Amino acid sequence: MNLEELGLQTKAIVTDILDRSAIKKGQVFVLGLSSSEVAGGVIGKNSSLEIGEVIVKAILEACTEHGVYLAVQGCEHLNRALVVEEDVALSKGLEIVNVLPSLHAGGSGQLAAFKFMTHPVEVEEVVAHAGIDIGDTAIGMHIKRVQVPLRPIQRELGGAHVTALASRPKLIGGARALYQEDEIRKN
User: Fold this and answer.
1) What is the pLDDT of residue 187?
2) Rounded Cα gap, residues 139 and 183, in angstroms
3) Where in 5-119 does DSSP place strands (E)?
4) CA-based angle 163:92:90, to the nearest 5?
5) For residue 2, what pLDDT is reported?
6) Which DSSP state fits 144?
7) Which InterPro entries does this entry report, sorted A to Z (predicted)?
8) What does the alpha-carbon distance between residue 127 and residue 141 come to, in Å, rounded to a whole number?
9) Cα-Cα end-to-end distance for the chain
10) Residue 154 forms beta bridges with which residues?
11) What is the pLDDT of residue 186?
């Protein structure tokens, strides 16, 4: 696997999702990642620290360029806890939990987040405004309602299936209600 090409593809996919998701500066973007799936294996069975580092670094750069905070979801062995910067956890009132990820409990994405973030901490949950799922890791529990699926410009990264979610405010009211333009589905 060409890691340089993987990084370029990742950044292109995430930049497209960030642009189309209507996420705003200061909001949270979730990454769910199975490096096993990217490598062509089965989720949780063939974790690759190198792949995790390439992908997280590319996504962290894209999020920083957009003024968005990254949260990296762990696997079920950490109850899908997330790595965020400590200042994000404190400013958003997130519950910090005490656990350190490993390659097979938390995964390569979380290890990479601990490497590349300034002051990483684990939090129990977030309510993010958008996110990307690389390898069918199930990020939906961390995206606010109402979730809107976005089709990535590239639906596979290595051997992994790629999906994305954005969110929009709930539409309330009845037959007489009027609504503002939907920023995500402008057409």
Assistant:
1) 44
2) 22
3) 28-33, 69-73, 82-85, 96-97
4) 120
5) 96
6) P
7) Antibiotic_NAT-like, DUF436
8) 8
9) 38
10) none
11) 59
Parallel/antiparallel/unpaired status of strands 160-167 and 156-157: antiparallel
Number of domains in the chain: 1
In a domain, 178, yes or no: no
How many CA atoms, within 13 angstroms, populate the side-chain half-sphere of residue 132?
Answer: 35
d(CA 187, CA 183) in angstroms, rounded, equals 9
Structure tokens given for 143: 């995206």
By the 8 A CB rule, do 181 and 58 touch? no
| Continuous segment of H or E residues that includes residue 114 | helix 108-116
The whole-number pLDDT of residue 175 equals 78
Q: Quote the pLDDT of residue 127.
A: 97
Between CA 101 and CA 99 the distance in angstroms is: 6
Q: How far lies 175's CA from each of 43, 133, 146, 172, 182, in Å?
A: 45, 35, 19, 10, 18
- Residue 184's pLDDT is 78
Residue 174 lies in a domain: no
Would you say residue 7 lies in a domain?
Answer: yes
CATH of the domain at 158: 3.40.50.10360
Report the C-alpha gap between 53 and 162 in whole angstroms: 17
pLDDT at site 130: 98
Domain that holds residue 150: 3-95+105-164
Which of the residues in the chain have pLDDT under 50?
Answer: 187
Summarised one tens digit per residue, pLDDT across range 163-180 is 999 999 988 887 788 888
Closest CA to 145 of 125, 129, 133, 162: 129
